[in-house]
Amino acid sequence: MTDMPPVRLSHYDPRWRQEFEQTRSSIFFSVEGWIRDIHHIGSTSISGMIARPTIDVVAIVEDTEAQEEAAGRIEGLNFRRIAPEMWSADAIRLRKPRNVVEGEFPTHQVWVVIEESLTLKRMIAIRDFLREHRDESLRFEETKVNRWRQGEGDPELYQRDKSVFFAHLEERLGLA
């Protein structure tokens, strides 16, 4: 186990959609035209799915100048810049912590991506596929919950197991 707290999963909460809309409005207001669009992604964006209660957002920009400017302005909304994951190396990733204690899971996570990026294509394709194919989203949810139980919420195991699922899904969707 890492020094991060165990992953917490929650049953779907319809307020997640409202939380996304509020976050979207705040980001659009703070970036003053640097962002072209904002999408709700991740498990909280899929109706009915058990999820880690973190609102995941992708903010789309035109180019690297806009990416840096937008990320800097989003930091002003109490987000902290963190290293991107390997699969999202072309994104700037920011998190809003639950409180000031380091190491706690975030309430929100934002990826700032350039509109033609592979990361954006992957995020939207996977989200849309899971929204449109309820059988697949249920299979993902079952896999996620089983792995979470087996790993006792270990954040590294949880992330690794999700990554394996997504890698297979990306291959099926022709994204790999």
Record the SSE blueprint.
Blueprint: H1 15-31, E1 35-41, E2 55-61, H2 64-75, E3 80-82, E4 92-97, E5 106-114, H3 118-132, H4 134-150, H5 155-172
Parallel strand pairs: 2-5
Antiparallel strand pairs: 1-2, 3-4, 4-5
Helix pairs in contact: 3-4, 4-5
Structure characteristics:
alpha+beta
Describe the protein.
The chain has 176 residues and is of the alpha+beta class. The chain is built from 5 helices and 5 strands, in the order αββαβββααα. It has helices at residues 15-31, 64-75, 118-132, 134-150, 155-172, and strands spanning 35-41, 55-61, 80-82, 92-97, 106-114. Strands 1-2-5-4-3 form a 5-stranded mixed beta sheet, with helices on both faces. A hairpin with an 8-residue loop joins strand 4 and strand 5 (106-114). 29% of the residues are buried.
The strands making up the biggest β-sheet line up spatially as: 1-2-5-4-3
Major beta-sheet overview: 5 strands, mixed
Shape: globular
* Uncertain spans: none
The number of distinct β-strands equals: 5
Strand content: 15-25%
Helix content: 40-55%
State the distance separating the first and last CA atoms.
Answer: 30 Å
> Cα-atom Rg, whole angstroms?
16 Å
Element order: H for helix, E for strand: HEEHEEEHHH
Structural class: alpha+beta
Number of helices: 5
Mean pLDDT: 92
